Structure formats: C-alpha cells, structure tokens
Amino acid sequence: MSPNPCDTPYDRLQALPRSVWLPSLICSAGERECKLTDAAVWLHSLGDGALPPAAADFGDAAASAPLRLAVGELGLAPLCRKVPALAEQVLRTLLWHMDRIADRQPDVARTDAIAQVVIDFRAEWQLQTHGLEAELAFLQGLGDLASLRWDELRGHLNSRPWQAARQAADRLAQMPALAALIDRLGRAERVPQADAVPQAQTVETAAPPAGQRAVTTRLPDAPGEIVGLRFSSLPERMLGSEAVMLRHPMLKKLWRARRAEGRLLSWLTEAVLVDWRPDPLARPRVGSAPAPPEALARGPMILCLDTSGSMRGAPENIARAVVLAALRAAHLAGRGCRLIAFGGPGEIVEHELGRGAAGLQALLELMGMAFDGGTDVQTPIEHAIARVCETGWHQADLLIVSDGEFGCRSDTLARLDEATARHGLRVTGVLVGDRETLGLMEVCDQIHWVRDWRRHADAAEGGDGRGFSPVHSKSLTALYFPNALSDRAARHRRGRAC
Hints:
elongated, two-stranded antiparallel sheet
C-alpha cells in the first residue's frame, strides 16, 4: 500500500527512533527528505561499527563531509557497534552542530562556519569518549545494550556500583581458576575432559595394556604368600611350637641351640611380582575397565550468594567477582543464570541475570549492596531446589559462595538429595575463608577454596595485596576432629576439590 501523499516525507520517521525525530526535523541544514532518509542509513551503519557512506550527506555535502571525516578520525563508529544509544547520540549531536551553521553565518562566511562547528564537534566528542572505549568493551560483555538510553548509559558508567564492578573485574583477572569453575557449571553440553574421577582400578582387575606381556619374578624369603616350612635362625618367622619353648626352664636351652644351628622350624614365604613389559609379538587385549563418566558442563547455573555480616570486606569483593563472572558466562554462551542473595531470616533477593538491561541492573544493585545481617541458608537452597525442578532448569548446577558459617536442617538436606537423584543436581561451594565448616561440607559436593582471599581486601580495611594465609589447609576440622564429621561431610576426605 502506497503512503498517503499528505504524509510524505514524514512517513520516513517510522523507521527512526523517537530520540532522533526532533533533531532530524528542526535541523536547518540540508533537505528534509534527505535528512529523514539518511538518518536511518547513519544509524544502521554506526550500529554495525562502520562509517556511513559519503552519499548519505543529508542533502548538504559541504557540511556533512567534514563532520563525517571527524566521526571517522575520532573512532566513533567502532564505539557505536551494538550500542544503539551511542549511535543515536552521535547522530543527534551531528545534526545539532549542522543546525548551528545558520546561526554563525551572519558574522562569518559559510565555509568558516562549517569549520568552526567541526572544531566544536571534535572538542565535544573528545571529552565524551575519554576512557569510553574500555568502558563500553567491558559493558558489552555484561548484556545486551539495545534497550539502554544514552542518559542511562552515562549514568551507569558514572555510578559507584559501576566502579565496584570494574574493581571486581580486576580481581577476577587474578583468579582464573574461579572463572574456569563457573564455566564448568551446568550439564547442557558435552566437554572433552571429565570433571568426575573415573572409578579406581586395582592391580588384580586392571587389564594389561595392549601389546604387552607379563613377566613373573619370584622372590624367595621375601614377605608374601606362605608356601611351606623350612629351617631358619630367624625368630620372627618361627612356628608357635618353637616359641613355647622359651617359657620352659629346660627347653629354652634347646631353643637356643636350635637357633644357633639354624634349625628352628619357620614359615617359608615367597613374593611374586608381575611386571608388564612391551611385546611387539603379543596380541592386543581389550581392556575391561568401565568407560569414564560423560562430562557435562556449560549449562544453566544458580548462584546462592551469602551477604551476611561475616562476608563484609574481602569476602564480599570476591563474591561480587563471582557474580560478574557468572553474568559474563551467561551473556556470552546464552546460559540461564539465577542469583539468590541471602542473609538472615527473611533477607533474600532473587534476580534473573539475563542478557537485557534487567541483568545489568541486577548486577549493579548487587555491587551497591551492603553485606550485613545474619545467615539463613535454608530458604535460598529451597528456592534453588524449586528452580531446578522447573522446565528449562533441569540441567542447572548450584554454586554457593560463602565463608561457610552456616548449617542446614536434615529436611533441607533430604530435599537436596532428592533433587540430586532426580535431576543430577551438583552443588559446588566457593569457600572464602580459612576452613571448611560442617554445614558447607554437608551441602556441597565439591569445595573450591580461595586461600588468598585476604589479598582482595580494600586498603581501608587493611588489605596489603599479599594474601598471606595463616593456615596450611582448609580441612582443619577433618584433620584435628575427624570424629566430628557426619557421613555426608566425611565424603570430602577422599578426592576433594582444590
């Protein structure tokens, strides 16, 4: 259907965002039809990170050409890539400066007026883009910026939570193992290297490698299987019938004589060693060991973040870095991510760390949150279990970030076991402290210890960047009070994570 002639050329406004309508209509330079058409070309090109074609001159090539050259020299096009708010702001300021040409013309020639507005345009964007490239590069890794306006974008970049997020990113760069741990969460994709440890094989049941032969070596008199009797002078191998003579007043003299002659009846033992050696003539043998479990990773994740008062200082800085890494991973791979921040009873906040502005806003709210209050881990774990049972979250894993100062009731542990059995839920703990507690050991399947957590304290809190740890192991309870461990907690004594 052809447009109504009465609407021409204003029907072209439909393709433009509302923020550029007014600058496109009131700009005195150029032709109105060209401005409305070329404005869409400029926005599309800047959104792709490219400089608009020279033909898109708004009907005033003399004015738009030097301004287009300034946009290219300032590097504004790459900055606008996938940042619609910035592209709109560049176009608005360009049209505003073009409109200033007519205001200067009574005093100076048009060519001089154009030169002056180009200088003003350069000066304005040199100030605006100072440090903006690094900020936008970091911001684009945290979510889709298409829904943000320019004032919102500038507001985020100048806020205190944003500075806290940048500090969290710097700390995250110092903890690559933590970022790798978050990448392994979930069970949506197959990965080449298994996280689980294959079942151990004993020497008797392990099949020999292909192309090898067994060489048997027998060592007489070595500790091993009893194969008979012999005469010996070694008391440690004599029979019991010889030992009873030592208690008799007369037979003990006979025992001494037999020992001197080497005539004590003793056990005859023999050790058998089996050594597998390469044999090119041997036929290959098929191993009977079970296949290692399939490793699954990079799926949805649920973060339970401890925001109690004991986490204040360096632990809360690490917790913010964990959330930042989770949001990055969720954005880059399109993974689901749910944040559950918990404190005392009734103090729980849930956020969906998605790709849009809501995920970024949730991150900034956490960065500005004060860590205070008590610790109630029952409710967040119950919320996480309920989430895992929902459609789309069956393959999620649970990550708990805490200093370990909490405990769980038996009914909560029972529900956790049920979710593990039905949905294969894995619970990973990030320990930001000096020792494992029984509560953390009972809840988590594996525990990642951030031993140098003190180095992440701010200078005002006594942080010196050295990260000295006064303890040699996080498993102090298991080392000094092993009988205090429950059956659930004792599983960490074997094959524990770092």
